[in-house]
Amino acid sequence: MNETPSRPRAEIDLAALRANVRALRARAPRSAFMAVVKADAYGHGMVPCARAAKEAGADWLGVATPGEALALRAAGLEGPLMCWLWTPGGPWRQGIEAELDMSVSAIWALDEVTAAAREAGRAARIQLKADTGLGRSGCQPADWPELVEEALRAEAEGLVLVTGLWSHFACADEPGHPSIALQLDRFREMTAYAEERGVRPEVRHIANSPATLTLPESHFDLVRPGIAMYGVSPSAEIGVPADFGLRPVMTLAAPLALVKDVPAGHGVSYGHQYVTQGRTTLGLVPLGYGDGVPRHASGTGPVLVAGKPRTVAGRIAMDQFVVDLGGDEPPVGSEAVLFGPGDKGEPTAEDWARAAGTIAYEIVTRVGARVERVHLGETPPPGE
Ligand SMILES: *Cc1c(COP(=O)(O)O)cnc(C)c1O
């Protein structure tokens, strides 16, 4: 036999990612585009996805942690790069030297970043974050005047450059939710205040994926989509990816590791939560919760096995789970597809989210480090 060995893997269709970036950019034609590639690009592989997004016209990259941002720089990604989740100790100095746009929500962070700028002998690029209602990070309206004044003072001393004013939505995935209009009003007020006091931002931004897809008035100078770029819908209320010309980027699949006959009344997997009704065949899928397959989908997760829709039988274990093949005997090594674009009959990440009682963001993002990422459609570096 001379076949390519198949193994558990997440195939990442970079051509689909590029097309998704172009489709999203077309929805916000007057705004710059920040490709959000935090959390290993929602499980899709940070560096290849960042490169592909930039090839398709993304102007900015966005991540949560300084570690993520510095890893992008170490991999050679240049250009505007924003990083928003800082804790005491930074590393602010490295952030300044890597020319990151660093989010500041509070005076403690402004103090630390200005001290680092003094040491470095150069200005830090900072973006002031307003809490317009999310109630997570960002500066409360009552504390905003002080943060703006202190930032302007540091700017006058040449320690910082305030490059952006920004915020984040709480309920943009529920179109029409009353908090959306309230947050937009507050964002306009808080940015107007800062600009009246003398802040000259390069960019003002608040739109995540659902807002990029459904709320043009939220696009301002820049949009910041994450999940939609990976071809996954932010919520059922927003719609399915195809409604917006988006295509899922990740396919999670594995070869069957075993196919066997079992008698009626046979318990399957830990706890015997599934018992065979009659004589049947079982297929073993070598992926489990150690690979990010949610254990909450035990007994409910959908899988396409050798072209037929099946359901997880019994508990999902750390490394593997079982499907009842109902007497079929596909050869060992046959493909089990957990999710993908859906056009060959395979389930989608949204289907798994429903089966596990979670959101599709979590399904793709939690695919574990043990699962090989196979990036398809990578552009070779120049000279190769
Ligand atoms: C994750 C994140 C985004 C992207 O959100 P999506 O819903 O995936 O588009 C944008 N902005 C911030 C601050 C984020 O944390």
From TrEMBL:
Ligand binding (substrate): 136, 318
EC number(s) stated in the UniProt entry for this protein: 5.1.1.1
Molecular function terms from GO: alanine racemase activity; pyridoxal phosphate binding
Active site (catalytic residues): 38, 270
Keyword annotations from UniProtKB, A to Z: Isomerase, Pyridoxal phosphate
PTM annotation (N6-(pyridoxal phosphate)lysine): residues: 38
Broad EC category: isomerase
GO biological process: D-alanine biosynthetic process; peptidoglycan biosynthetic process
InterPro entries reported in the protein's UniProt record: Ala_racemase, Ala_racemase/Decarboxylase_C, Ala_racemase_C, Ala_racemase_N, Ala_racemase_pyridoxalP-BS, PLP-binding_barrel
Cofactor section: pyridoxal 5'-phosphate
Catalysed reaction equations from the record: L-alanine = D-alanine
Metabolic or biological pathway: Amino-acid biosynthesis; D-alanine biosynthesis; D-alanine from L-alanine: step 1/1
Pfam family, one: Ala_racemase_N
Positions of the Alanine racemase C-terminal domain: 249-376
Record's GO cellular component terms: cytosol
PANTHER family (alphabetical): ALANINE RACEMASE (PTHR30511), ALANINE RACEMASE, CATABOLIC-RELATED (PTHR30511:SF0)
Family affiliation: Belongs to the alanine racemase family.
Function text: Catalyzes the interconversion of L-alanine and D-alanine. May also act on other amino acids.
Protein name per UniProt: Alanine racemase
Organism (species): Streptomyces tsukubensis
